[in-house]
Amino acid sequence: MQHTLTSIATVHSPYQQKFGVARQPGLVPAAEVCIELAAEFNADSVRGLESFDYVWIHFIFHGVLDEGWSPLVRPPRLGGKQKMGVFATRSPHRPNHLGLSLLKLERIECGKTVKLYCSGADLLDGTPVVDIKPYIPFVEARPEAAAGFALSAPDLLQVAWLPGTDTGLSANTRELIAQSIAQDPRPAYQNIPERVYVMSVAGYEIKFQIEEKAATIIAVEPQAV
User: Start and end of every TsaA-like domain (predicted)?
Assistant: First the structure.
């Protein structure tokens, strides 16, 4: 029996492009998104959800739908050199391009549409959501479980700002930019100190360089409309 998934919500995210999006949920606490439910889902559909701290977001990796999939992928955590089976990774290049993120539920607004505000997001702007479920710790928390090649959080880069580059930024935007770059968004195989990387986030175009374990933000400019 075939069943077609339909989107129940759309993500409004500060990440406008794939480059720079956190590779896992929770790694960039300042990354707040708004998950806006489709018009047919009213306040009744989220009744009781406000009593949970975290939610599972099931979504579609819509930014890579045209890139296909492979049974073997190169996880960034392994330096982009070692291949692992796609089902042993969180790669977006999957047969059905389905993703799963555990996000902190900050608040719910029930107005003309229902909106869930979540932090620690790793979602691209416009991401279609296909389901939402509450996180239940006693069922789903297994801190003693083996974690394969992802035993701990990745090491963070030290982030420095050239004088004046953060002028006019709100505290949250500054944190969002710094935390996103600290995750080292470069492809795992790339290490070119002189290269200038460009990341679009929160309406700004950020230019930065990375050498060893340090990143330097050299320019922050409003994105052209």
Answer: 5-144
